[in-house]
Design a protein that fits this description.
Length: 859
């Protein structure tokens, strides 16, 4: 695809070269800075000064001022000119002879008596290896030898340094460092003149077509290959770039990165080195010469000279972007890095990426656009500004100038296509969601979050609530009307809450629950409000909404008191007494709150336990008085009462006992209360004789003896046995119940006491299970005690053994042996022994122990 990369600008008109001589032709050219040298077929060298300027239309132009021309005194054409600016010399090939002239006067200068004759071609080493700044290296091809001579040109002499033989006669050459790229008669080759190593490249017929050997960079050459290809080869003979497909009749070629410029009989073609595509074609008849000098491409016909002026890369890139050729523009931008200062390039590259992103954005290529925006560090507000009303009204953002795109807004982009509008909005949602977590968005987080909220609300996106529930920078003044407009009242409440306006949030949610506003976002909004208030530290809000919540649902509403966390400080804590006082008119909620205090939080306060027990009792008594009550309701209420009466030890037992004493239907509860008062005989009488519930009586004995010693438990069961065997009650003794009790709990009873109580007429087989159990328990207790005694004796024996072992062998004390502490001798046999068997005086050990104790005390 075409792009305008060069302008063809005239430099030297034919009249300035030829004058009135028709047969004069340009044979060679050389350019050094502003100085242009032409060699003609009549053996003249013409020296021009080129002045570059810009026309009124902004186009480049050149003025050529002829400074001098010099006849070399021969009748042969000047075939080659090369400037040695460091020496102010011009190397000339004319009549197969190398001569050196002064660049200013064009007068010949001496070469130390050395003349190179029989020369067909030569080239300058643009990557010299000598390191001498006042010396020019060159390679020369001799017509008489199959060899290349390496020469050094000084200001006043010419020296042949080395001669390297070649397998065939060279036709053309180029030199870089130690490497010579040669076009031989039948092939190209790379030759290292330092080591004489060579590398054949590919065949080429020099007689059929003129060879091209052009150095384009460090150790890299451009060659004309068969089939109309421009091949690249490095010093190792490897092509690291794809070939360029140019004309079969190419006369000359040059490189102006990133382009390869080729000249044929009728055109100048420009190919990209990056993608090898033809970018520009310029008609040019009678083309003869094409060379590049320090980035300046000079083109000549036989009569005139032109300069191919490269258009600025930035303009080329913008032309590509204008044609929506994004990939080519980016490729060219990346290639331009070598020619642009680093800081300027980074600015340019970011802008090109952003422009490319907007082009692909307009083409709905969202993945590519997102990647270019990300790499180009796009100010996301540039993108948001395309969507009407998304930026906050307080935003001071103005679009980049010059603009990054040609779009006015989203309406201009979509032309009313609703499907496209939705696709663009979905892309922006995705992009803003990613951008939020990037540091580059921190400077304008309000713009991003506000725009994202508006998009979420407008499209009904599920992430709206997640945004508001997380850390965000949504502007209340912009977002509140927008949420209200799109009927997102619950989200509006969240926004109020995030901005510290909990009262406004609750007002909004209460209206939704009451049906004044329609929003189905949270079907469980009532439960949400309760949960919100249960964690709210503003107690005024809690009390303000408590009555409404309890009137709507006491069971759920009371959770604003029961679900409050305990980890808060004084702020946000409720006084239970205040809550209980407030809940007096909400009986169900009061019961639930007291259950929370007593059963869940396990508060050890008598008034809470008593209050809950009284409420339970009132509930049971109330249900019993209602004719329509179901058995399930009454059973559940009594179960709660019975469980509290049994498990709690903090309520006022006498108060509850007085409350229930007249109820003949609550005998189990009365029995429990008698148990709490240690009135076990009354309790057992109720269970055995009034309720006639033997299992309940046995369970009562087990319950009442929990956390008591064995004697207490045994005494309780003996009381129950006595109740069973009491002959003075109506119906007489309960023999079966007594036998069952003895047989099931044989290990609890004292067998001797039991045998004294039992009537003499009872048979032993009837008591066999009891007697066996009692005997087994007695034997087990005896064996257990014996084992315990044996273990104690063994432990005592082990301690005695350890003590004897620690005391060790005999300690020798004599009048000649001294104490280890005071070093005085022993006057009596009594002594103490230090670890290791060292004897010391008893009074010394006592004194040492006393000193150690005092030291520890002071420490």
């Amino acid at each position: 695809m075409s792009v305008k990369a060069f302008e063809l600008v005239p430099a030297v008109e034919r009249e300035q070269v030829m004058g009135d001589k028709v047969r004069i032709n340009i044979e060679c050219i050389e350019c050094c800075g502003k100085h242009l040298y032409l060699g003609t077929n009549d053996c003249f060298i013409h020296h021009f000064l080129l002045e570059e300027h810009t026309t009124a239309k902004g186009m480049p132009a050149y003025n050529a001022q002829k400074l001098l021309h010099k006849f070399l005194g021969l009748k042969k054409p000047v075939l080659e000119l090369k400037a040695a600016s460091a020496l102010e010399r011009l190397i000339v090939l004319c009549d197969s002879t190398i001569t050196v002239v002064d660049m200013v006067t064009l007068e010949p200068v001496p070469t130390g008596g050395n003349k190179l004759k029989g020369v067909t071609a030569f080239c300058i080493n643009e990557n010299p290896v000598t390191g001498d700044p006042f010396c020019v290296e060159m390679a020369v091809v001799s017509a008489r030898k199959r060899a290349v001579q390496i020469c050094l040109v000084y200001e006043d002499r010419l020296q042949v340094l080395k001669e390297v033989t070649t397998p065939e006669q060279p036709c053309a050459l180029s030199l870089d460092g130690y490497f010579i790229c040669l076009a031989l008669s039948t092939q190209y080759m790379i030759l290292n003149y330092s080591t004489a190593a060579s590398q054949d490249l590919f065949p080429y017929d020099c007689e059929e077509r003129k060879p091209i050997v052009k150095r384009i960079g460090r150790e890299e050459f451009l060659l004309a290959a068969p089939g109309g290809l421009g091949m690249f080869a490095n010093a190792e003979g490897i092509s690291q770039r794809a070939p360029v497909s140019w004309s079969e009749n190419v006369i000359a070629a040059s490189v102006c990165f990133p382009y390869v410029v080729a000249l044929d009989e009728g055109f100048v073609t420009v190919h990209s080195m990056l993608d090898q595509q033809l970018k520009q074609t310029l008609p040019f008849r009678d083309g003869h010469l094409l060379q590049d000098f320090e980035g300046k491409v000079v083109l000549a016909s036989t009569k005139a000279v032109y300069i191919l002026v490269p258009l600025p890369l930035e303009r080329q890139i913008q032309d590509l972007l204008a044609s929506h050729r994004v990939e080519e523009a980016l490729t060219l931008t990346e290639a331009a890095q070598r020619n642009i200062p680093k800081e300027k390039y980074q600015i340019l590259y970011k802008r090109i990426l952003q422009q490319a992103g907007f082009i692909q954005f307009g083409q709905l290529k969202f993945l590519e656009a997102k990647e270019h925006f990300r790499k180009g560090l796009l100010d996301v507000r540039e993108l948001i500004s395309l969507y009407p009303l998304l930026l906050p009204s307080s935003s001071t953002f103005t679009r980049c100038h010059p603009p990054l795109h040609e779009f006015a807004d989203l309406n201009h982009l979509t032309q009313g296509d609703k499907e496209k509008v939705q696709r663009f909005k979905r892309f922006l949602i995705s992009y803003l969601h990613e951008v939020r977590s990037v540091e580059s968005a921190n400077g304008f987080r309000e713009d991003v979050d506000t725009a994202l909220l508006k998009l979420y609300a407008e499209t009904g996106h599920d992430s709206l609530l997640d945004l508001l529930a997380s850390d965000n920078a949504c502007l209340l003044t912009d977002c509140a009307p927008w949420l209200e407009k799109h009927l997102k009242y619950f989200a509006l409440g969240l926004l109020y809450h995030y901005n510290g306006q909990d009262s406004a949030a609750l007002q909004m949610w209460v209206k939704i629950v009451k049906g004044d506003l329609q929003d189905s976002t949270r079907p469980d909004l009532f439960e949400y409000v309760v949960d919100f208030l249960s964690f709210c530290s503003n107690l005024d809000l809690v009390w303000r909404h408590a009555d409404w919540l309890l009137q709507k649902d006491q069971k759920i509403g009371v959770q604003i008191f029961t679900k409050r966390p305990d980890s808060e400080g004084k702020r946000g804590q409720l006084n239970p007494d205040d809550v209980i006082g407030y809940l007096q008119k909400h009986n169900k909620a009061l019961v639930l709150y007291l259950e929370h205090l007593v059963l869940e939080k396990r508060l050890k306060k008598e008034k809470y336990h008593t209050h809950l027990a009284v409420l339970y009792a009132d509930r049971v008594l109330g249900l019993m008085s209602r004719p329509t009550v179901t058995e399930e309701q009454l059973s559940a209420a009594r179960q709660k009462l019975q469980q509290l009466l049994k498990e709690s030890n903090l309520y006022r037992v006498q108060l509850l006992s007085n409350k229930l004493q007249d109820s003949e239907l609550l005998l189990p509860e009365r029995a429990t209360l008698h148990g709490k008062l240690e009135e076990h005989d009354k309790a057992l009488h109720i269970l055995v004789h009034q309720l006639k519930d033997s299992p309940a009586a046995e369970e009562y004995c087990s319950w009442a003896s929990v956390n008591q010693d064995q004697a207490y438990r045994q005494n309780l069961f003996h009381q129950l046995l006595s109740v069973y065997l009491d002959p003075d009650v109506p119906g007489g003794p309960q023999t079966v119940a007594a036998v069952d009790l003895l047989n099931r709990h044989a290990n609890v009873f004292d067998a001797v006491r039991v045998l004294d109580l039992l009537p003499e007429e009872w048979s032993l087989p009837l008591l066999r299970p009891f007697l066996c159990g009692a005997l087994r328990s007695s034997v087990h207790a005896r064996c257990t005690s014996r084992v315990a005694v044996g273990l104690a004796r063994a432990e005592n024996l082990q301690l005695k053994h350890d003590r004897l072992k620690y005391r060790g062998g005999p300690i020798l004390v004599s009048e000649k042996k001294g104490c280890q502490l005071c070093h005085n001798t022993f006057s009596e046999p009594d002594c103490a022994c230090l670890p290791g068997g060292k004897p010391v005086h008893i009074h010394c050990v006592t004194k040492k122990a006393l000193i150690s104790s005092i030291s520890e005390l002071f420490t």
